[in-house]
Amino acid sequence: MKPSLTLASTTLALATVVMSGQFSAAGTIESFVEPYRRVAIPAPEIGVLADISVVEGDQVSKDQIVAKLDDSILRSSAKVARAAMESTGTLLAAESDNDSRLNQLDSYKQLKEQGNASPREYQRALSEQAKSAARLQTAKEELELRRLEFERVNVQIARRQITSPLDGTVVAIDKEAGEFVSPTDPVVMHVVQIDTLKTVFSVPRSAAVDVAVGQQVELSVGYEAITCTGTIDFVSPIADPQSGTVRVKLRIANLEGKLQSGSVCRWNLEGYESDQRISNAPTSNQR
């Protein structure tokens, strides 16, 4: 490469870094805190939203119902299925007939032993009792199928209820009651967990050798420089060959809500030389 091109490339790179404003103090790397979990809650079925029971900013708990799809048709089906399940006339008739056939068979057996009934008559009674037992079994199976049908309808009704998968805060509602939820656009709202936050740093390889999962480190969050403790959740086993850094994810407790998601987060790496400054603004592939 020609010297003039090398100088131009170096100048351009330096200008880019200076303009980005991402130089940190000596031995300090920066990132941003974000919700520990962010979930886009979809509707499990297609249909019209009948009700949304929360608003943005509401605190929700895990498995709490936050919205419902219209289920009027399914509830009518459930009533029919319940009536069919509780209809036991066929079963009672089959049980009565089977008891009668058993008594008749027992009578023919005694008569046969006394020589007052022919083997043919006994075989006929035995055959009739077997048919009666089969009808009783069919009635029981039909009743079980009706019970299962009732349970199936109830499961379908439950799937029309949209629940939160975590304890968190509603930060966005994408749809309103009366809108249709389609398979191509199923998301109804977004919930985040902010009682715990996370941050992702790009740590130089020279410093990453001293960090491990479970280790606690001191961090500084926000322009107010709030001091807090972060716990290392993950240390990437691979390094980025271009930047010479290792991806490290930390978990930060935020039970009192003093830390705001999106704030800058600084980590002072002891023994990390000032001439090894790097930019640690998280990119999309760090999340």
UniProtKB/TrEMBL annotation:
<feature type="signal peptide">
    <location>
        <begin position="1"/>
        <end position="25"/>
    </location>
</feature>
<dbReference type="Pfam" id="PF25954">
    <property type="entry name" value="Beta-barrel_RND_2"/>
</dbReference>
<feature type="domain" description="YknX-like barrel-sandwich hybrid">
    <location>
        <begin position="42"/>
        <end position="183"/>
    </location>
</feature>
<dbReference type="InterPro" id="IPR058792">
    <property type="entry name" value="Beta-barrel_RND_2"/>
</dbReference>
<keyword id="KW-0175">Coiled coil</keyword>
<feature type="domain" description="CusB-like beta-barrel">
    <location>
        <begin position="201"/>
        <end position="270"/>
    </location>
</feature>
<keyword id="KW-0449">Lipoprotein</keyword>
<keyword id="KW-0732">Signal</keyword>
<protein>
    <submittedName>
        <fullName>Periplasmic multidrug efflux lipoprotein</fullName>
    </submittedName>
</protein>
<comment type="similarity">
    <text>Belongs to the membrane fusion protein (MFP) (TC 8.A.1) family.</text>
</comment>
<dbReference type="GO" id="GO:1990281">
    <property type="term" value="C:efflux pump complex"/>
</dbReference>
<dbReference type="InterPro" id="IPR058639">
    <property type="entry name" value="BSH_YknX-like"/>
</dbReference>
<dbReference type="GO" id="GO:0015562">
    <property type="term" value="F:efflux transmembrane transporter activity"/>
</dbReference>
<feature type="coiled-coil region">
    <location>
        <begin position="126"/>
        <end position="153"/>
    </location>
</feature>
<dbReference type="Pfam" id="PF25984">
    <property type="entry name" value="BSH_YknX"/>
</dbReference>
<dbReference type="InterPro" id="IPR006143">
    <property type="entry name" value="RND_pump_MFP"/>
</dbReference>
